[in-house]
Amino acid sequence: MRFKNTSETKIVPSIYMIIIAAFVTNIFVNLELMASDNESTITFSHFLPNILLIVFGIYFHRIGQLFDFDSDGETLNFKNNGLFFSKFMEYRVKRAEFPKGKLIDFRVIDFFFYASLKIYIRSRRKKGPRSYTFNITFLNKKKKRGMIESLRKVVEKNKVEA
User: Fold this and answer.
1) Of 86, 83, 71, 97, which Cα lies nearest the Cα of 135?
2) Fewer Cβ atoms within 10 A, N terminus or C terminus of the chain?
3) Cα–Cα separations (whole angstroms), residue 143 to 3, 8, 84, 121, 128
4) Mean local confidence (pLDDT), 87-95
């Protein structure tokens, strides 16, 4: 099974632009209020929209990642890549490629606004299992179910062989 979440993540760069445009607009509104001769003073409520926009910007930067999964052949391939500049360069890359026989277990942590996949593999260099965490927030339900089923089959096969 092989898939990417490119169709689900097409909206994220547009959201980045909307957040930046709203942030800059609010800064100019606050500067205009400070420059006016009115008796109104700048309060925390004037900066609250910018604070919220910064929080949303950090959130979308954190979750805005492409996810590639490939379980064809003898290896499992997982890859997270940054989304905004992904057409030009690879950044924020997290990759794991290993034989299927090394997979010990996996966990899918799925909140309403964030989802991640944590995999555990055997390692010769490190005592105990090695773990990797991948962001799968923008993966649709059908692809999540297929990936979980594929990983479950690999883990069951490894437990039988061990």
Assistant:
1) 83
2) C
3) 8, 11, 22, 22, 30
4) 76
